[in-house]
Amino acid sequence: MQVEYAYLGNGERLAYRKIGNIEGPKIVLLHGQLASSFFFLPMMQRMMDDYHLLAIDLRGCGESSYQRPIDSFAELAVDVEEMVKILGFVDAYVLGWSFGGAVAIELAARMQSLKGCILLGSLGLDGYASLMECQWKPQEYRAYTHRRELKREMHGLSYWYEAVQQQDNAELRKIYLQWIVATHRVDESLLDQYIAEACKQRNVLDYELALLRFNVSHQFNGVTQGSGRIDAVECPILILHGMEDRVINPQSWSNIKASQQQNIQVKLFDKCGHVPQWDQQEAVIRAIYQFAS
Q: Do you know which SUPFAM superfamilies this protein is assigned to (predicted)?
């Protein structure tokens, strides 16, 4: 699938892949940390007959540029908003996987024209607090005001951060097998391509800083007070999450399901890890078809 480019007013050049039925509903796909639009290719090929699909390399990832460092996922949402206006996807559904879910929520809070928001294995509304306890967390619950503070701790605590910095494909392969694809067998050649895409990210540290600042709930999450921006999201939200996710705690979405928040649907999948679109592809696609029809 051909990679194309759009040029934004802030000087960034964002790469994207676009395919599908131009008469069908539109879906914008946003990837997470250590990823790119390439991660959505199997899903896009499965859905291309019925949907018009746009997968974007977020700033600093894949083939996109990184001229201006980010401090928040909201800044990435501003990029995506300009992008969808350029490409005619303002009335689309937005789908975000992992950290891309945070960008999708920020975008939905900004754009009332969106038809729906789909969160796949996504960071929770309370951000930092939704990470599994086995994932990297700072040793003290505090906000970081400077990148150098975060960088100092990341070097000591995050083995995958070191792997990306050193372009250590062997170590990244171990990390992927342990955390990302733990419940799904991936073709070896495809796994090599995923890891190659992960190594293209130039702003891992900045995404972690954005994580520590993201909280659209109404609660304090241990680091950041909730902004309550979830209230600005008017479109319906569909949450699809694996019960065996080793990165983001599915309990964070179980709590929302129990509260029966008005515009949010939650579907939790057994035998499913951090990447529902791989582990439970048919069930995930079926749920998307029911939601975005």
A: alpha/beta-Hydrolases
Average pLDDT, the chain: 88
End-to-end alpha carbon distance in the chain: 24
One-letter identity of residue 192: D
Q: Which CATH number belongs to the domain containing residue 239 in this structure?
A: 3.40.50.1820
260: left (phi over 0), alpha (psi -120 to 50) or beta: left
DSSP letter string, 166-233: TT-HHHHHHHIIIIISTTS---HHHHHHHHHHHTT-S-HHHHHHHHHH---SSS--SSS----GGGG-
pLDDT one-digit tens code per residue, 198-234: 889 999 888 888 988 899 999 988 888 999 999 999 9
Return d(Cα 79, Cα 83) in angstroms, integer.
Answer: 6
Q: Are strands 116-120 and 93-97 parallel, antiparallel or unpaired?
A: parallel
Above 60 in pLDDT, residue 157?
no
Number of domain units in the chain: 1
Percent of the chain with pLDDT over 70: 87
Q: Are 170 and 196 in contact (CB under 8 A)?
A: no
pLDDT at position 134: 53
